[in-house]
Amino acid sequence: MTYEHATIVITATVASALRRLAQVLDRNETDGMFTTALSATGNTPATHFISSGQVPDVFAQAIRSPSILHTKAQAAFLKEGVTYPFTLTQVTAALSGCSISDGTRTVVIDGVTTVVDEGPHAFIARLGLQMIKGTL
Amino acid sequence: MLRLPLRPPLREPLRDAFLRAGNISQAIRALFANNQQGVWYDPSDFSTLFQDSAGATPVTAVEQPVGLMRDKSGRNNHASQITAASRPVVSARVNLLTKTEQFDDAAWVKTGCTVSANVLIPSAVAEVHHITQALSSTTQGVFVEVVVEKQSTVDKVTLYPGGAATFCHFNLTAMSMVRESGVTSSTIEALSGNQYKLTAAWPAGVAYDRLRVYASSGSEGASAVAGDGTSGVKLIRAQLNAGTATRYQRVNTAGDYDTAGFPMYLRFDGVDDGMLTAAVNFTATDKMTAWAGVRKLGDTLGIVAELSAGAGANNGGFYVVSGNDSGAGYSTLSKGDAAAVTGHVGQFLVAAPHTAVLTAIHDIVGDLSRIRVNGVNGTDGIADKGLGNFGNHPLFIGRRNNVSLPLNGNLYGLIIRGAASSAAEIAVTERYVANKTGVTL
């Protein structure tokens, strides 16, 4: 298994479907994603969810391509003997609202384009979102 | 309510002998020698770390994810994370720059100068001459150390991390410095071979997004004075720390850097990273001692470790957290069958970024929750905790119940012992964790 960094922000409206897809795609690697809630104000209700970290490169590739995700998910559901509940159109629509970062960002300094690291918190802020804070 | 007196620690000659002999690792093992329940996690011991949760792929290098961390206490309370994106990463990185000894690399953007054999050569044009490495923006205080070698009349150097009024000017010939108002401190030290170590520190609260090194033969490094096109100042090495200065760490790339002698830690991203164990059966005791080496990078509430899915709601749980409802500090809580109240919480206020050896001491029947930070007691929680022992709950690390309150920080080690610990045991374990964390007690 090889991994690559990805920070993935999805909309709340498709969170349930993408959690289910990720769960069945690889129960030992991508089950349990998209549980951290975001919103523009930092208050509930959540408008987005995020996962960030090292993900299998197969998943990183799939989440960027509706057709690859659709094909791989369909095969995974079939392997488990479960009816695949989504169409390619639905998967395409779900991914259309996703924002994905590889952990870097291109900036221009003194007229020179350069790449800098960008952590998930900076990425969230750039999207105009905040994590919804919890309490003890 | 009937109260039992606190029992004095049992005398255990064998353990005391270990402590006297200074064999710290043996002393840590001895914490569990009498079947005490608990955990001992050591991120610096790669033999205990695996990239996947099943333990099939060992961790072999820094910057790899940790999906399984084996317990060294002998109780087999291994911690794991099945979700790849939620696995912390093992790291020893302290210098935020890359190519720290290779200034001709593209990571350093050249303006009004060239760099040849690491010599920054100002152009023959009356303009500023500098190299810049861009960083992910941080509002923590930053510390910079740059070593240069004077080779010519290009003997002025200026350091700039971004922000306003933050220039720090050095004159290598005069051994003098001029700091703008946004610079906290600076030093210049002559080394051998015409080399000079320049350091500067800037306070928290400003957005720093770069390290820029100017050089000039003018009145200061940032002067727009033409060079001769051939003379310059040699750059030896550069370091930038967030928060606190450390010794120099050579960094080539994000995954290739010096690790020898640098504390290893698990980096929790403050978004969704965490680990958990199966249920750990602490039902035989109402006493608990926990030690953790932690660097908190922010003051948003985050779980360091928590027994149960929520210690405030579950009898026989406890937590150690970074940040609190007041915005800063560390706190710890445990309780028996009483409803959770603020008075159960032991706390210590200190703002991020902060590196600490935390010791949490709990006694349910004795109504005590205490947190020690780098050997200093905080304010105790002494409200009535009710009765009962600790529970048979999973242990969560870095995140509550694997879903909320993510820790934004580093974990250098974690030891939890289901027993009261003597002053000597606490002291020697604090020393052990301090050594792992890079803290001097």
- Low-confidence segments of chain A, given as residue ranges, are none
Helix content of chain B: under 10%
Q: Specify the overall morphology of chain B.
A: elongated
- Report how far the terminal alpha carbons of chain A are from each other: 37 Å
Instruction: Report how far apart the termini of chain B are.
Output: 39 Å
Mean pLDDT of chain A: 94
Query: If you average the pLDDT of chain B, what whole number results?
Result: 93
Quaternary organisation: heterodimer
Q: What's the total count of β strands of chain A? A: 7
Order of helices and strands of chain A: EHEEHHHEEEHE
Structural class of chain B: mainly beta
The residue ranges of chain B in which pLDDT falls below 50 over 5 or more consecutive positions are: 1-19
Main sheet of chain A, how many strands, which sense, barrel? 5 strands, antiparallel
What percent strand of chain A?
A: 25-35%
What structural category characterises the helix and strand content of chain A? alpha+beta
Instruction: Determine the number of helices of chain A (DSSP H or I, runs of at least 4 residues).
Output: 5
What pair of chains forms the biggest interface? A-B, 41 and 46 residues
Question: Tell me about the biggest sheet of chain B?
Answer: 8 strands, antiparallel
- Approximately how much helix is present in the residues of chain A? 25-40%
Indicate the proportion of strand residues of chain B. 35-45%
How are the strands ordered across the major sheet of chain A? 4-1-3-2-7
